[in-house]
Amino acid sequence: MHPLQCVLQAQRWGPLASVSWLLFRTCRAQSSVHGTTCPGPGRQQENGVQKDFSSRLAAGPTFQHFLRSALDPQEKPDVEDPPPYLTVDELSGRQRKVYLETYGCQMNVNDTEIAWSVLQKSGYLRTRNLQEADVILLVTCSIREKAEQTIWNRLHQLKALKTKRLRSRVPLRIGILGCMAERLKEEILNREKMVDILAGPDAYRDLPRLLAVAESGQQAANVLLSLDETYADVMPVQTSPSATSAFVSIMRGCDNMCSYCIVPFTRGRERSRPVASILEEVRKLSEQGLKEVTLLGQNVNSFRDSSEVQFNNAVSANLSRGFSTNYKPKQGGLRFAHLLDHVSRVDPEMRIRFTSPHPKDFPDEVLQLIHERDNICKQIHLPAQSGSSRVLEAMRRGYSREAYVELVHHIRESIPGVSLSSDFIAGFCGETEEDHLQTVSLLREVQYNMGFLFAYSMRQKTRAYHRLKDDVPEEVKLRRLEELITVFREEATKANMASVGCTQLVLVEGHSKRSATDLCGRNDGNLKVIFPNVEMEDVSNSGVRVRAQPGDYVLVKITSTSSQTLKGHVLCRTTLKDSSAYC
């Protein structure tokens, strides 16, 4: 048989669609599914232990086990029985120490917090010392080839740590989590024998079981994508105790199917968390003293909570003028404007941001809400990807350059002083020099405050991989990217110069990395602001002078700027409510 021996295990959180594949790698081809397996890499198993595990594995689960596990969630018991081949003790962490490394986007930061929440409840401990870790988990990104190469390089570094592990300690286990695990699946197990577990973005609940299986010397993986997993009932554990802000995932997956993008294939279809669970998380973060939350999703403003039956007949939200979708309009559900409204009411002193949106999903009610609420940041990420209508069509973005520019004007009219950021790809399939120059001209025309620019990296499974040709030479991509970065910096510097002489509200994050005598924070537009760490007046306590602490709001008068950073001198400590009289 194939060296990957598959054993199905139904999960408690979903129907048959959520049945996971537990992949066991054996060291030689075998003639029977229930044949004896040999120890995994880097660890010799005692015959008794291995035989015991194999006999229990052969004893279950059965098809009836699947049917019982596929019951409606409301009919399931609160406490799940362990799988037939694992004991409760084997599923526990036994206070083993976990080291987590996060790569990529903000969603991966939130995924790390979810994974840690699951492991913490199972009895694992967290460590920030790599040398004392018993389990090392890398939360990975697959958006570009360079992101994956970073992980391969990191695995080579960790190989020495595993091979030099003292026999007196429990064997070191290494896991790959997230998008790279989902995209490459068993290729990772085949290429790197030192990897013990794989868990896709929808399989973090399964981490205790995967690690328990790895303890037998087997490699284990759960890379099944779910149609309904949102981790709504998992409260993420903040990885930084001193943090002033937090990410709150409101939806997962993406249905846009842009031709260049791997996300629909690594994170699955769009599904949104119930509004009630999001509000509960935001309230808890407010009670913990956090001053800023960022609502997260691959396409955050297409949020649609369909869990409340009475709203399932609601009309669909209007798209931005001149925009279209690659899928049929979705009817019913509570939309992003409703969620944003309710989140902003939880704590008037808590800033609200959201990312990453799609330009098509900006109805007027969302723009009006951003304009009206003091605690919703006047900053919008508006990914353009290209300034050429021809390239945008090849990307399947659903809009032309003209429609995008019209939306920019509409947003600036609706939200005076709004800060705009964007994403751009240099050297997409078939991009000509004229197409590139149109992107340059869009950067100059819009004059973004922040930007994220990358050279195109073709990904397998995407529409571009199957239908288009990656025909722009690498050196041309890099040259065009450098030109875009140069123009962006020039225009961002001009845009940010408008802040000089203005007073801005800044949320203090901590000390500046470049100067022990300075503090840093972020303004409403999400730009970094540097200012001296000096005593100042406290508006709430007349006559009292204080020094700003992380989590404080301060007023800063801007004196200079670059494309990335503002500098100024601090005026006073204040509150978000009181600051409106000054800004």
TrEMBL record:
Q: Where is the signal peptide?
A: 1-29
- PROSITE patterns referenced in this protein's UniProt entry, alphabetically: MTTASE_N (PS51449), MTTASE_RADICAL (PS01278), RADICAL_SAM (PS51918), TRAM (PS50926)
Alphabetized InterPro entries for the sequence: Elp3/MiaA/NifB-like_rSAM, Methylthiotransferase, Methylthiotransferase_CS, Methylthiotransferase_N, Methylthiotransferase_N_sf, MiaB_methiolase, rSAM, rSAM_horseshoe
Q: Which SUPFAM superfamilies match?
A: Radical SAM enzymes (SSF102114)
Q: Which family does it belong to?
A: Belongs to the methylthiotransferase family. MiaB subfamily.
Task: Return the HAMAP family for the record.
Answer: tRNA_metthiotr_MiaB
Name of the protein in question: Mitochondrial tRNA methylthiotransferase CDK5RAP1
Q: Which organism is it from?
A: Panthera pardus (Leopard)
